[in-house]
Design brief:
A hairpin with a 5-residue loop joins strand 2 and strand 3. Helix 22 packs antiparallel against helix 23, helix 23 packs antiparallel against helix 24 and helix 29 crosses helix 30. The longest helix has 32 residues. By secondary structure, the chain is an alpha/beta fold. It has a seven-stranded parallel sheet, sandwiched between helices. Strands 21-22-20-23-24-19-25 form a seven-stranded parallel sheet, sandwiched between helices. Helix content is 48%, strand content 14%.
Length: 953
């Protein structure tokens, strides 16, 4: 086959826009690029400045360029007998058809393929499909992004990589893909058909390294064979070896392996502290700033302790990101430098693992809710099965709707057949659980720690020692898990998975299978299922009414612009229920009774079906899934009942919603006001040693706030608590300058007046010009971010500095951060989730602006309830709660700036309360010692320019 890879640069993406450059790369049958055609095109209209800044194509370039007629005359012969290929090909194809039409040629009628589809299917774990990023990932030269010839060539080389990858796949996988796509009348289906035909004509011996099972090619093997790491060693490798001796060996291996490795004072201190805490059965709070190397600071003592005493050590992180970083980066390094074999296993929440039984079932039934998107997700997963050993959803780049698909094939305890499942020996979840059982160190996350407690310690292997990284989140996560939260869709999903309509859903599927089974009782069972349908509709109708009624209880906020996330919040007080609460209780009672009825009848039916011996596997699988869903429905019914009672004075009850989606966005919460007692009884009283670490645990050089929040007072009184504040490895006085414009206007509430906003926009723009973009601006309210976004964009456009706004530009936090790093000059505006966990080392970030001190809104139900509790105890809620919380968040924000010992940058705090108020000093004293200066606004930009000038030591 011959391929023609096409790319156009245009004056925009409207139908009135025109082509300014054409690029075409021809791939011959031997899979090499035989020629690249490229030409500027005279547009006949001016090129917008933003297109020039994106592509680098100027009026000068196109001034003497050929007309579209001439260019098409050269291109059309190249397209003969070729398959057209493009990256997001629909865009270029539309321009091609319109150009052919304008210049009097017939439309193109050949086959069209999109490299996006190939990348998604063949590289399901790629984190981004953006051309430039993929090119650098594949080490494909792409020196002039957004110029047609460079883009066309890069796309061609990427396409060739995809075809090579396709050749490596086992025949079985190709058969599966061709079969899956055969239902689609598409060029992609035609292509996979052709590949399959070719492969079947020359069936080379299939590649080894795969397990073939039930018509799938898998990378994973039977997990029953996985043994503990040192099962063949007679003696303990640490017999008679002290921690210091062990560390000497490790550090000399590190120096050999990494020539740039240097011992850091802070890391050495941390290693000693953690080892001592384990040794002496004490708890430890250790604050370790960026650059300490804290993962090795706790992993090495954990490995030493675990191997030496044969006791498992549990490590818990808050984010899956950090869990992945430990798996991908830190553990492989330690495997090479620790002088004996050890095993560290990652174990996540069950819903992160694929259930192979459910996936097989879904494929065989082609049970797709939105066929076009779901067929694509299924294709990704068929290829992924031949690549993954963990079956963990974090490895997959599932598109927007992929999450819904995943929910239907994720592992769940209620629908697990255990040992009687034909997939049991290959099961990813049971493999992860088994590996955790035989590992020395288990890496899990905060959520799973609490799910394990709720499951009566059935999920995690037993442990006596625990390291909690990102420990400043522990209290939050504890509240969420020890309390209850439920969304409108929690109930709806369960209902619709059981019964969507008479044809779709697990119950109609079961009814159909019973009909086909020819069993004499099939008709009576079918009648029971039919009898359940009206009850489902009844529950859905009442739930809709209850959600609507709850949503209308929430006051319309006068300062909420539409589209503000979570703009409606209402706290429900046990002693002061809303007037109409009794009506709501009547609706809830109706739901309670009807679900009870469904659960009873369904359980009776399922028991009868399970007792029938001669079922085929299909029904057994379905019955298991339905049993699980019925159990979920019962759990949701009970959770709703306990919420509606509003009877526990130690719990905060509230509801939230969003103006755009109305009652569909309803969320209900019941969270303990204070989790310190529970943390104490589940963890600090029970476990021998718990190490808590984070870059932000202290406030004003003291750990007292954390000790109170986490329930460590008793451990402190009994001398079972060690604390340690590690020195920073960076020289902040040289590396960071903090400036405060002391005459900056102040602001009341979450929204700035015109004067405040215009002053802020002007100052941000002036600063961004001096720092050439590379600026992160942190807001505490999404509304203020929106007020700043457009005017700032306009001011900076003439300086070729782009502005990226969270919630304004589409994409997740990771995607926006990547875009920011990938562009030469840009300003990134972010709210709450950008204050931490965003890592932008090096030159990509030079300045950080903090618009307001990050106080939590005092009217948030949980903050309000905690404040009331403190007032009853005659304590000052502002100083005891609001200030410490804000300081910790402020330190997290500040921590975005300096990520390596080479980074240099400035921080601007626009909130003058940091100078004027009595509590401002707590914020400044908590920072790791940057140079601090305040000055009138007019002097700020010259001072920043002077400080950043490399000539100026």
């Amino acid at each position: 086959m011959k391929y023609a890879v096409l790319d156009f640069e245009t004056t925009g993406n409207q139908s009135s826009d025109v082509i300014i450059q054409a690029g075409l790369a021809i791939i011959d049958e031997d899979m090499t690029v035989s020629r690249v055609y490229s030409s500027f095109v005279k547009p006949g209209i001016p090129i917008p400045p933003f297109i020039t800044s994106l592509t680098g194509i100027t009026e000068e370039d196109v001034k003497d360029a050929p007309d579209l007629d001439e260019v098409m005359m050269e291109m059309v012969p190249l397209l003969n007998d070729a398959v057209l290929v493009g990256h997001n090909v629909a865009f270029d194809f539309n321009y091609l058809q319109s150009a052919l039409d304008k210049t009097g040629y017939l439309p193109y009628t050949g086959r069209i393929l999109d490299t996006m589809d190939f990348l998604k299917i063949l590289y399901p774990s790629l984190t981004t499909y953006q051309l430039g990023m993929v090119a650098s990932e594949f080490e494909v030269e792409h020196d002039r992004p957004h110029q047609a010839d460079s883009d066309a060539l890069a796309t061609a080389l990427i396409f060739i990589k995809c075809l090579e990858e396709l050749e490596q796949l086992p025949l079985l996988t190709i058969q599966r893909l061709a079969d899956l796509l055969s239902g689609e009348d598409s060029d992609l289906a035609w292509f996979f058909d052709a590949v399959l035909e070719q492969r079947q004509q020359n069936p080379s011996v299939d590649q080894d390294g795969y397990t073939y099972y039930r018509q799938f090619a898998l990378k994973t093997e039977d997990w029953m064979n996985i043994e503990p790491e040192r099962s063949n060693m007679m003696d303990n490798p640490l017999e008679g070896v002290s921690f210091e001796q062990f560390m000497e060996q490790v550090q000399s291996s590190l120096k050999e392996k990494l020539p740039e490795y240097e011992e850091r004072e802070a890391q050495n201190l941390m290693l000693k502290e953690v080892a001592a805490a384990f040794q002496e059965d004490k708890h430890l709070l250790v604050e370790a700033g960026t650059g300490t190397g804290k993962s090795l600071g706790y992993l090495l003592p954990a490995i030493y302790h675990s191997v030496k005493t044969d006791e498992k050590v549990m490590v818990s992180t808050h984010t899956i990101n950090l869990q992945e970083q430990l798996r991908e980066r830190d553990i492989p390094l330690l495997t090479e430098v620790v002088p004996f074999p050890f095993k560290a296993a990652v174990f996540k929440g069950r819903q992160h693992y694929l259930c192979l039984r459910k996936f097989e079932h879904k494929m065989n039934r082609r049970d797709f809710a939105s066929p076009k998107e779901e067929v694509m997700t299924a294709a990704q997963m068929i290829v992924w099965l031949a690549q993954t050993e963990n079956g963990d959803d974090e490895e997959l780049n599932l598109g927007n709707r992929g999450g819904d698909f995943w929910e239907t094939v994720a592992s769940e305890s209620d629908s697990c057949l255990g040992r009687s499942c034909p997939w049991f020996r290959k099961c990813y979840y049971h493999k992860a659980k088994h590996e955790a059982g035989v590992a020395d160190v288990v890496i899990t996350n905060h959520s799973k720690l609490f799910t394990d407690i709720q499951a009566g310690h059935q999920l995690l292997p037993g442990y006596e020692r625990l390291v909690i990284d990102e420990a400043h989140h522990l209290e939050d996560v504890a509240g969420k898990h020890l309390g209850m939260q439920m969304k409108y869709f929690t109930v709806v999903h369960t209902l619709t998975r059981l019964f969507k309509d008479s044809k779709n859903g697990q119950l109609p599927n079961l009814r159909q299978q019973l009909q086909q089974s020819g069993n004499e009782r099939a008709a009576s069972w079918g009648a029971v299922i039919d009898g359940l349908y009206p009850a489902f509709l009844d529950v859905k109708e009442h739930w809709d009414r209850l959600a609507e009624a709850m949503f209308t209880l929430m006051p319309e906020r006068s300062d909420a612009a539409s589209g503000d996330p979570g703009q409606f919040v209402l706290r429900l007080l046990p002693h002061k229920k809303p007037k109409s609460w009794d009506d709501l209780l009547t609706m809830e009672n109706q739901i309670y009774v009807t679900i009870g009825d469904i659960v009873r009848k369904a359980e009776k039916l399922l028991t009868e079906l399970k007792e029938q011996d001669e079922q085929d596997f299909g029904s057994e699988s379905l019955i298991t899934d339905i049993t699980g869903l019925i159990k979920d429905l019962g759990t949701e019914r009970d959770a709703l009942r306990s919420f509606m009672k509003l009877e526990d004075v130690n719990t905060v009850y509230w509801i939230e919603g969003n103006g755009n989606y109305r009652s569909k966005s309803l969320q209900i919460f019941a969270v303990p006001i204070d989790v310190s007692e529970q943390l104490k009884s589940y963890f600090f009283d029970r476990k021998k040693s718990i190490v808590m670490t984070s870059a932000t645990l202290s406030v004003d050089k003291s750990f007292q706030y954390m000790i109170d929040q986490l329930g460590l007072q008793e451990a402190q009184a009994q001398d079972r608590l060690m604390t340690s504040m590690l020195p920073s490895p960076f020289n902040y006085r040289e590396q960071a300058l903090l400036v405060i414009p002391r005459d900056f206007p102040s602001v009341k509430g979450s929204v700035g007046d015109d004067y405040f906003v215009s002053t802020l926009v002007q100052s941000l723009a002036d600063t961004a010009i001096v720092t050439q973009g590379r600026m992160l601006v942190l807001f505490t309210s999404y509304r203020m971010l929106r007020q700043v976004y457009d005017p700032l964009k306009e001011l900076l456009s003439s300086h070729n500095i782009s502005v990226i706004g969270q919630g304004m530009d589409s994409g997740s936090r990771t995607k926006l951060t990547r875009r920011f790093q990938g562009q030469q000059a840009s300003v990134l505006l972010g709210t709450s989730s950008f204050w931490e966990g965003v890592d932008i080392p090096g030159d990509a970030l030079t300045s950080l602006a903090i618009v307001r001190l990050p106080f939590q809104p005092p009217n948030h139900p949980l903050v309000e309830a905690k404040s009331e509790r403190l007032q009853q105890e005659k304590k000052n809620p502002f100083m005891k709660l609001s200030v410490p919380q804000a300081v910790i968040r402020f330190k997290q924000g500040f921590g975005r700036l300096v990520r390596t010992s080479q980074d240099r940058g400035i921080v601007i705090v626009y909130d003058t309360r940091i100078l004027e108020s009595y509590y401002g000093k707590y914020f400044l004293y908590s920072l790791p010692g940057p140079k601090m200066e305040h000055m009138p606004l007019g002097q700020m930009v010259p001072r920043i320019a002077e400080w950043l000038d490399p000539e100026n030591p």
